[in-house]
Amino acid sequence: MEIVSTSFTHLYGTHHRWLLGLLRRRLNDRWDAADLAHDTFIRILNRPPVETDHLRQRSYLATIARGLCIDHWRRRQLEKAWLESLALCPEATQPSPEQRAIIVETLYEVDAMLARLPKKVSEAFLLAQLHGQPYKQIAEHLGVGERMVKKYMAQALLHCAILEAELDGMLVQ
Length: 173
What we know:
By secondary structure, the chain is mainly alpha-helical. It has 2 domains: 2-84, Rna Polymerase Sigma Factor, Chain: A (Orthogonal Bundle); 95-172, Orthogonal Bundle (Arc Repressor Mutant, subunit A), CATH 1.10.10. 83% of the residues lie in helices and 0% in strands. α5 (119-129) crosses α7. The relative contact order is 0.07. Belongs to the sigma-70 factor family. ECF subfamily. Pfam families: Sigma70_r2, Sigma70_r4_2. Residues 109-160 form the RNA polymerase sigma factor 70 region 4 type domain.
């Protein structure tokens, strides 16, 4: 374990400043950059690079950081859209800051879950849940039979149930 610790310390000491600069330029925010640099190195602890070459280590760090930036921007878009729709609601119905944080996290997790599903499955789910379309109309839109729409919905709902169990577990702990 000491070898991993020593190599991680060396990797961090060698590349942290560079990675922080890269993220500052990409995000235009030093606090977000510091958070994502930290998250990048946390990921490295779980999956250390096998390469010892300086340039390949930086490439590995940049790849992880790029993925984290995409997640960050996606989360911000979701949060912005939700806050815009929330602004249309009466102030008396506004959730507390804690509830807002939980809702934004849940939205992000649902979005990530939908992104992992096959395209037609997520599209069928969104058409049914957000647009209230009946299965027959969804089937026509997707160019499949109603039976296939039922299978798509069962698959999406199964993933929703799994996600709900995971989120319940996070909230209980």
